[in-house]
C-alpha cells in the first residue's frame, strides 16, 4: 500500500503542520493511518520532485 501527500514545498509543509489546525489534522491522520498501515513495516519519505522531461 502506498499513501501519498502532496504539498507545494518544504516551507509550505512546515507552515501547514505548525498551525493549530495543521497539528490537529496531522494527529487525526496519524490515528486513521493506524487502521490502514502496518506501522511495524512503515517508512516515510519526504521528497522534492524534479521534472526531468517535459511532455
Structural shape? flat
The major beta sheet can be summarized as: none
Arithmetic mean of pLDDT: 82
What's the total helix number? Answer: 2
Distance between the termini: 28 Å
Estimate the strand proportion: under 5%
The count of DSSP E runs of length 2 or more, i.e. the number of strands, is: 0
Briefly note the structural class of the backbone: mainly alpha
* Radius of gyration from CA coordinates: 14 Å
Low-pLDDT segments: none
H/E element order: HH
What helical percentage do the residues reach? 40-55%
Topology:
Blueprint (H helix, E strand, L loop, with lengths): L9 H9 L1 H14 L22
Helix pairs in contact: 1-2
Keywords:
about 55 residues, mainly alpha, about 40% helix, about 0% strand, flat
Short description:
The protein has 55 residues and is mainly α. It contains two helices and no strands.
Task: Provide structural commentary.
The protein is an all-alpha fold. It is 42% helix and 0% strand. It has two helices and no strands. The chain has helices spanning 10-18, 20-33. It is flat and about 40 Å long. The N and C termini lie far apart (28 Å). The model has no long low-confidence stretch (mean pLDDT 82).
